[in-house]
Amino acid sequence: MASTQDSNDTAPLVLIHRLPRFNISFTHWLRPKFYPLEPSDPSYATLAPSARVLLPVGPTPVDSGTLDLFPAVECVVGSSAGLNHIDLAECRRRGVRVTSAGEAFSDDVADYAIGLLIDVLRRVSAANRFVRAGLWPVKDEYPLGSKLGGKRVGIVGLGSIGSRIATRLEAFGCVIAYNSRNKKASVPFPYYTNVHDLAASSDALIICCALSNETHHIINKDVLTALGKKGVIVNVGRGALVDEKELVQFLVRNEIGGAGLDVFENEPVVPEELYALDNVVLSPHKAVATPESFAAVKEVIIGNLEAFFSNKPLLSQVKSE
Amino acid sequence: MASTQDSNDTAPLVLIHRLPRFNISFTHWLRPKFYPLEPSDPSYATLAPSARVLLPVGPTPVDSGTLDLFPAVECVVGSSAGLNHIDLAECRRRGVRVTSAGEAFSDDVADYAIGLLIDVLRRVSAANRFVRAGLWPVKDEYPLGSKLGGKRVGIVGLGSIGSRIATRLEAFGCVIAYNSRNKKASVPFPYYTNVHDLAASSDALIICCALSNETHHIINKDVLTALGKKGVIVNVGRGALVDEKELVQFLVRNEIGGAGLDVFENEPVVPEELYALDNVVLSPHKAVATPESFAAVKEVIIGNLEAFFSNKPLLSQVKSE
């Protein structure tokens, strides 16, 4: 599969960096414009030190050790919406620019967040289980769900994804508020400076902010307590935004109303206590995953590479803090 | 529970009409303004012949035989959105007015339809099964769903529910078209005079029209063929709008893409072939069911009764064809 760069191949090198478990080649589409340099390439040892661009596949970590290995790297082209696997501070210190997937995944993640919220509130997956278990003809009564319209939904992180979630929720007649690092100008929704107060004023929280040292376990015991017994959590951000042990305890003890979780602290491990709960919807980190969004992210990556190698502004450069 | 109407009780009679399986009293909230006359009431035989209003519980049928039994009835106060269980032509012939639940259920049904569509397209329930079966750590690959944005969604029946579905779909960036008895003025979406042509131009069909002789099996073999291999069906209307045997065959043979079904031809029986399919979401006729919508329908019923007994226009009278 890996063809060595021959003397006529002047395509710019793109150093592919991947965890061993991501062992499928999905960078063939970079050719022939670019030369994806895989560790399996016979010329890897020769060429890698001169590569100016690093492309970490999915959540493959990029830290100071990685950057030490590839001293010529000037730009890390990310392929995901969240970049918590890339040490942004270290990149900044070294003058290495970083790009994200931009808005390629935003619509799909927003759609999925709404899907999870409707599912938990209206018990869609639970209804599906009920019917498939053959219970409908036997048990006439089925526990009611709860109406989406009029619900106060708190969005944690009103960026590219969060603002799309807000647009969708408005069409359902929800009452929206948000928390984010800063109050957004020209946003009509009430802003809360902290997640605790947002939770106390919300029937549901949708978590879609970036994971950083500041947002690690932003949803903790106090926030869950403030959300209350009927409150619902939807997480389409990163698992570690939520103190998962606490969340499991709150769910097991019926101290919150339910949860729709696409992400977990220790993926692909999901706390087994959740399997038994009817008010929880579990999903294998797939809010981003459609053929359409994958096509869009390839376009963003190619656009960033073209921009980099022609000294134009990058399409989706991550801003320094 | 049933207290006989005593000589001081001048509350107007409301004759409660119910299938034996709906044996729970949920008309106590009519008191004390009205006197709900149940078959179990000791005065039933004496009072029923003079009752001017009939309240059929849920889908309890009202046909010419029913109306023969209660000759004083001038108004049938329905408690559901669909009125296919009431013989509207026969009521019209006898000058009996009929009311529906009006818009009490419309938002909830629209929400649920969107929930089912996201679920089928993005495989939410299937993902939930996948995780709960412990497969995530084992099988790295998970079949992709499909993006909602840009999908051409055909709405069959653009009434109170269908128009709310359209509002929601617009926020997701869907391309909307519709079929209904007549083209609606002031609706921007393309109108198709027949469902076959709508299906041929759609990626998904959402069925939310009234069930009548004209719409029985409106989704038949030809329509499913026109919808095509990747097409998705969502039915929140009535089971008999779809030729269920054909639908099952199309799903089993992978001749359409998937289905989200809240209603079935022979409820509570669900064709068992569907249990094995991962691209089908099954739900026990609960799109209408939230505490909020039940409160709203009670208000509509009381409003109609008050209007009837004070000779004012009914709130949600069904128009004659």
Automatic annotation (TrEMBL), chains A, B:
Ranges where the D-isomer specific 2-hydroxyacid dehydrogenase NAD-binding domain occurs: 114-287
Alphabetical UniProt keywords: NAD, NADP, Oxidoreductase
Ranges of residues in domain D-isomer specific 2-hydroxyacid dehydrogenase catalytic: 40-318
Top-rank taxon: Eukaryota
Family matches, as Gene3D superfamilies: NAD(P)-binding Rossmann-like Domain
Any one GO molecular-function label of the UniProt entry: glyoxylate reductase (NADPH) activity
Family, similarity comment: Belongs to the D-isomer specific 2-hydroxyacid dehydrogenase family.
Protein name: Uncharacterized protein
